[in-house]
Design brief:
Strand order of the largest sheet: 2-3-1-4
Shape: globular
Strand content: 15-25%
Number of helices: 2
Number of domains: 1
Oligomer: single chain
Largest sheet: 4 strands, antiparallel
């Protein structure tokens, strides 16, 4: 299965995620922002919890856009050299 949509979501919606519909297997496998206020999921078919409005994504991204986002200070800690 190839996933091509990446969606950021508020952490308050974590309990509404049906992990059988996305590329992650549990809350333990999601990528969280450094302040843990957001997380990201990936999918190729829109999950029912988004389709029915139970979860409202903050943004939807392509793989390239998601990679760029993960490099920002909000998602990735810069280590001293």
């Amino acid at each position: 299965m190839s996933f091509n949509i990446y969606t950021t979501i508020n952490i308050s919606d974590l309990s509404n995620i049906d992990f059988s519909e996305v590329g992650e297997t549990s809350a333990d496998t999601i990528r969280k922002s450094l302040d843990e206020s957001q997380f990201i999921i990936k999918y190729n078919i829109e999950p029912s919890f988004i389709k029915n409005g139970l979860v409202v994504p903050l943004q939807s991204l392509t793989h390239s856009e998601a990679l760029l986002l993960m490099q920002t200070p909000f998602w990735n800690e810069t280590l001293p050299e």
